Amino acid sequence: MHELAIAQSIVDVVEQRASECRATHVKGVRLQIGEASGIFPDSLTFSFEMLAGLSPLLEGARLLIETVPHLAHCQHCAREFVVEQFVPRCPLCAEWSADILSGTELHILEMEIE
After folding, report:
1. Which end of the chain is more exposed for a tag (fewer CB within 10 A), N or C?
2. Does 2-69+103-113 carry CATH code 3.30.2320.50?
């Protein structure tokens, strides 16, 4: 369950940034997670809420997750397409020469502080 380690990293980064901003409480954290990142949003949310409960600064903070689709760009026909089941083959021209555009990211977008 690598989501626990990821949640700990998020908590660490948020605590550090909130301290730098002289925040007294973090109400929420908004993330972007790619469909192909290998992260299970429910497990990450559970882990984050558990760890946030141990931090006076983050107690009760909510994790808001936006899912980013797994997209690729075909180098042959220049079409953008959704990658299905991790297979980056263009559905239009059937070529395998594709550049992954999105879907593997994990970004902390913002946090709501008091």
Report:
1. C
2. yes
71-102 residue pLDDT tens: 999 999 999 999 999 999 999 999 999 999 99
Phi, psi of 51 (to 5 degrees): -70, -35
Cα separation of 34 and 97, whole Å? 21
What would the pLDDT profile of 46-58 be if each residue is shown by its tens digit?
999 999 999 999 9
Pairing mode of beta strands 26-34, 71-74: unpaired
Among candidate residues 84, 77, 89, the one with its CA nearest the CA of residue 103 = 84
